Amino acid sequence: MTQKLTTLTETASQTAGPYVHIGCIPTFAGLGAIYPEDLGGSPISEGAKGKVITITGSVYDGTGWAMRDALLESWQADASGIYAGQPNADPAVTGFCRFAADGTTGEFTLRTVKPGRVAMRDGRMQAPHIAIWIVARGINVGLSTRIYFSDEDNATDPVLSRIEQRPRVETMIARAQGGESYRFDIRLQGDGETVFLDM
Amino acid sequence: MTDDYDTLPLIPRNRAVHPDPYDPGYKTTMTRAPSLPLLSLDSTVTEQTGPVFGHGVIGTLDNNLILNWTKGEAPAVGERILVHGRVLDETGRPVPETLVEIWQANAGGRYRHLKDTYFAPLDPNFGGCGRTLTDVQGHYQFLTIRPGAYPWPNRGNDWRPMHIHFSVFGRAFGQRLITQMYFEGDPLIDRCPIVATIKDRGQIEQLVAPLDMSRAKPMDFLAYKFDIVLRGRRQTFFENRPEGM
Ligand SMILES: [Fe+2]
């Protein structure tokens, strides 16, 4: 026998299910009247510093079908690489957004500011990125990935550097489409499967 | 909890205490579970920080699902219950002032959602979602009705046990968790393929809320207690630059 550890065990995840919108984006489910507005409807407000960008994409299942029921959340730094709650953060950037795949087309849109580079604890810099969390029916534990940008220098990013199969890095990079538009598709399974993170 | 604690790295997630992502008993997972391994790395500031919501966004009826849909005009149909508990992290610290959101079916097992076509009727007095912030000790509570069990398309005749969906933020994006609470004594728990995606029996038991008569109100409502544990943070006395980083 040994001494007993006093740490607790994390509560097990369960799927968000097909009706996740009721709790997270009530307007999407048809419950618009419940709150004054959906939480996290936009990660920025008027006057946010930096370049406003729009990222569109779809979440594809293993058959290549664009899921109509995926719900996504994003978390990011402001244009200077500072997170809300840290000193000197841009007050017009909450950094958090909730958005859903369209019920008809399966396409999602995230309108935000491009984040700045973010320092690691040891001072090394991470390339600009947005953390993404995906939940849906059939996803038992929410899936995490990151959006990087094709028009940034990602060469020394400490996370992307750890991807052994170099072609897979591309699955975490949003493609600049000219102007302020980017494309970022997420593939849950199979060909071109997105790199999902456990961090 | 100090601000210093909130800057520490997260304890790596123990995937063995979570459901299997791919489980043929729950058919939809077969096309939605990644087939390649996750990339496991130490958390960075991106995962260690997260959105914080203030009391300003929470309305007075937001944690009362019996009344919030009708703005207090008329109560929802169903067995009245209080659901309460604490949000803690793995180190046992309470998680203060964090957002807890719930959603659920009505007493007949029907969701108020454009996509739910089950023929159990909607309750005109029930919306089915609520939210609240934990207090400084991590306590939260909701007043609601006990949701009904409902059938769902999976195997030939699968039914969901009575359950409430929970979404919890914690104080770091890496702590983000969505789970479901079940009710003590429900015989459908052991028949549910979604519950069965969790292979650790003890972890299933942690999702089953016991009846808590100490919080039930005579002649008004029963109570169930549901504590939630989020990832904790790791003390960092000896920091080395990891190999290859
Ligand atoms: Fe459900």
Count of DSSP-assigned helices of chain B: 3
> How is the biggest beta sheet of chain A arranged?
9 strands, mixed
CATH architecture of chain A: Sandwich
Please state roughly what percent of the residues of chain B sit in beta strands, choosing from under 5%, 5-15%, 15-25%, 25-35%, 35-45% or over 45%: 15-25%
Provide the succession of SSEs of chain A: HHEEEEEEEEEEEE
Bound molecules: fe (ii) ion
Q: CATH homologous superfamily of chain B?
A: Aromatic compound dioxygenase
CATH superfamily of chain A: Aromatic compound dioxygenase
Radius of gyration of chain A: 18 Å
The CATH topology of chain A is: Protocatechuate 3,4-Dioxygenase, subunit A
Please identify the structural class of chain B as seen in this structure: mainly beta
CATH topology of chain B: Protocatechuate 3,4-Dioxygenase, subunit A
Provide keyphrases for this structure:
heterodimer; A: 199 residues; mainly beta; Protocatechuate 3,4-Dioxygenase, subunit A; nine-stranded mixed beta sheet; two-stranded antiparallel sheet; 2 helices; B: 245 residues; five-stranded mixed beta sheet; four-stranded mixed beta sheet; 3 helices; 12 strands; binds fe (ii) ion
Structure notes:
Chain A is mainly β. Chain A has a single domain (19-187), classed as Aromatic compound dioxygenase (Protocatechuate 3,4-Dioxygenase, subunit A), CATH 2.60.130.10. Chain A has two helices and twelve strands, in the order ααββββββββββββ. The two termini of chain A are 32 Å apart. Chain B has one domain: Sandwich (Protocatechuate 3,4-Dioxygenase, subunit A), CATH 2.60.130. Helix content of chain B is 5%, strand content 23%. Chain B has helices at 29-32, 45-48, 201-205; strands at residues 39-40, 80-89, 99-103, 129-133, 139-145, 150-152, 158-160, 163-168, 177-183, 208-209, 222-225, 228-230. Chain B is globular, with a radius of gyration of 19 Å. The two termini of chain B are 30 Å apart. The mean pLDDT of chain B is 95. Chains A and B meet through α1, β2, β5, β7 and β8 of A and α1, β1, α2, β3 and β9 of B. β12 of chain A pairs parallel with β1 of chain B. The structure holds fe (ii) ion. Fe (ii) ion is lined by residues 160, 163, 165 of chain B. Fe (ii) ion binds at residues 160, 163, 165 of chain B.
